[in-house]
Design brief:
The chain is an alpha/beta fold and 375 residues long. It has helices at residues 14-27, 34-47, 58-68, 83-91, 110-116, 136-145, 197-206, 234-244, 247-265, 293-296, 300-309, 326-331, 341-349, 361-374, and strands at 51-55, 74-78, 95-99, 121-127, 149-153, 161-162, 165-166, 173-177, 190-194, 271-273, 280-281, 287-291, 350-353. Bound molecules: pyridoxal-5'-phosphate. Pyridoxal-5'-phosphate binds next to helix 3 and helix 4.
């Protein structure tokens, strides 16, 4: 039985990358040089944002952004997100204030955000879940009204759009991941996208320990912030540049596959999908189904096991949600009493199915057949 993984990166032909890698080796400039700047320029133009700063990962980009903004106290964040969102807050000494997501969009609920604001709140930190953009307009209005920073964990959302604009220029900053499970990869890497010049300069310094102009100009070793080594290597940047050329066709192929999934599974009692608002155009990075165990007849976990036995990999994104993770409960014992009904429901009932460009229609039909028979 053919193994179908949950994801596979789309990569350029070796020929396309070979020349660039040779050039890097001969130039002896291995990090934070010509290709990194090239990738930043190309991404900036693609997204239509003023500044794009390449970093070693989305996680380091999140940490540097929170740090560079000088946030204090509490930050409002979804619990239904990937661990790195919450971890970044904790690395910066910030307290996560977890709020619920909407059941239909699987994104942070603006009305829950508004209810959670206190004297100690300094920012809203929202994730574009599975590449489907948040209600950016409402979140922006709330942030403005209460004088809060608004940062988006856009790790999954490269190429996603909102109101006819690419994700990347909303809020104070949007941070992308270029790791292999996302729509565009540089092997490992991240991009901090912002229209704020001062913030971009701080991130440039911050990725290089906090040293002055980020390594581009004469060093000033009196650091402007407590930075990291979060530089991107030239090899990663070169791969990112080639992969950027594939993004649009990649998203098109993914959309076609998602349409087939929806067609095959749409009529089944007990299966539903994430809602996409009229303002949003996702990049289809992941495709998840939400199982109502009573109507469907079996639980998400049973379906996961059935698919696994048939050599099909799926993921329980995101189980456990952050407020139910042991380390979070140890750090913040009051979380044991926190109930986020929609988050807990999705964490127990959502299942992410295989999706990548060299999946075939036959593969999808096989996956859907097993789901229907499993019922
Ligand atoms: C993948 C992901 C990250 C982490 O990205 P890295 O580049 O691996 O650090 C962070 N947040 C979300 C929502 C993600 O999906």
């Amino acid at each position: 039985m053919k193994f179908i993984p949950i994801t596979k990166p789309e990569l350029p032909d070796f020929k396309k990358i070979e020349k660039k890698y040779k050039h890097i080796l001969f130039s002896k400039m291995l990090t934070n040089s010509k290709y990194v700047r090239g990738l930043e320029d190309k991404i900036k133009l693609f997204l239509g944002v003023k500044y794009a700063v390449a970093v070693s990962s989305c996680t380091s980009g999140l940490i540097l952004t929170l740090k560079a903004l000088g946030l204090k106290g509490e930050v409002i964040v979804p619990s239904f997100t990937f661990s790195a969102t919450g971890h970044a807050l904790i690395w910066c000494g910030l307290k996560p204030r977890f709020v619920d997501v909407e059941l239909n969009s699987c994104n942070i609920s603006p009305s829950e955000v508004e209810k959670a604001i206190t004297q100690d709140t300094s920012a809203i930190f929202a994730t574009h879940t599975w590449g489907n953009s948040c209600d950016i307009e409402r979140l922006s209005r709330i942030a403005e009204k209460h004088n809060l920073r608004l940062i988006f964990d856009a790790a999954q959302a490269f190429g996603s759009r909102y109101k006819d604009k690419y994700i990347g220029s909303f809020g104070d900053a949007e941070i992308f991941s270029l790791s292999p499970t996302k729509v565009i990869t540089s092997g490992e890497g991240g991009i901090v996208a912002t229209n704020n010049k001062k913030l971009a300069e701080m991130i440039r310094a911050g990725r290089n320990y906090g040293v002055g102009a980020g390594g581009d100009k004469d060093y000033d070793y009196d650091c402007v912030m407590i930075g990291l080594n979060a530089r991107m290597s030239e090899f990663h940047a070169a791969l990112g540049i080639e992969n950027l050329k594939l993004v649009k066709s990649n998203i098109k192929k993914r959309k076609k596959f998602v349409d087939i999934y929806k067609e095959e599974l749409g009529g089944i009692r007990g299966i539903s999908f994430q809602d996409v608002s009229a303002s949003a155009e996702p990049n289809y990075v992941y495709f998840s189904i939400i199982i109502d165990p009573e109507k469907f007849g079996i639980t998400r976990d049973t379906l996961y096991e059935i698919l696994k036995k048939k050599n099909i990999e799926t993921k329980k994104y995101y189980f456990p949600p952050l407020h139910r993770q042991k380390e979070y409960e140890r750090l913040f014992p009051e979380l044991k009493k926190l109930h986020l009904p929609n988050t807990e429901y999705l964490a127990c009932n959502a299942l992410t199915l295989p999706l990548y460009t060299d999946l075939t229609e036959k593969d999808i039909e096989r996956i859907c057949r097993i789901i229907k028979e499993g019922k």
